[in-house]
Predict the structure of Mediator of RNA polymerase II transcription subunit 7.
Amino acid sequence: MAEAGQQRALNTAFAPPPPLWKHFTPGNLKKLEEIKREASKREDGKPRKKEWPPSDLRSLALPPELRFLVPPEIPSGNYSVFGEVQNLSTALPSLEEQGINQLYPSSPRPGPNGEPPAQPAQPLNHAYYLLKISKSLLLNFLELVGILSTTPDQFEPKIEDIRNLFINAHHLLNLYRPHQARESLIMMMEEQLSRTREEIREMDKLKEELTAVLDQLAAEGVDVGSTIQPPTGDDRKAVKPEEHVSEDSQLVWDIIDELDR
């Protein structure tokens, strides 16, 4: 009876925390530290600093209330969360593997040794079967309304049919997830490539404008190759600003600033 009540509590929409949280108390934590300290002593009785991985903690003779404080083993296949079994595999299991009636055909699968299927795989028309399931949902809902108006106590089979239709529709949509992730990645890469090409075009355009301006200044006799040498040491005080800033260089930089705006 207690196990049934606990299982029912775990399957609720807002399940309470597992009852093992009651064992995570300061007293139990202190007891666990004392046990680890005693187990890590040397043969002469002197304390020794030791790292305790979960595998070593599980090998200790701990009382039942302290075993909940040891991290569990990393799951390798299935694990349970709030009474539901979850799978670590990224492959989407078929409805048949989950014991659910599948309302659309499955693609042929390879043999146990990896050989190709006997029949060539036909592409699954997801949109066609989603449309059929949607129409079946409407029909089953109308039938459910009729059942509730005449014999309300016989609604359970029809509710189960509607539930099965929703599960099949949801599973069909989940089959699109790899395609959606692939297309989203392609879109992100295309946007990044387009943004980079636009920046390169802007840089090439600015380069052409600067080259045209410099060619025009060179044609007018302006020395565009002159540079400004910053003063060093004691010459910084002796050189006046008007002497180390040439008029031609200042003109070039003013034109560049205007283009940049």
Q: What stands out?
A: The chain has a mean pLDDT of 78. Residues 126-214 form one domain. Residues 147 and 155 are 6 Å apart (CA to CA). The first strand starts at residue 78 and ends at 81.
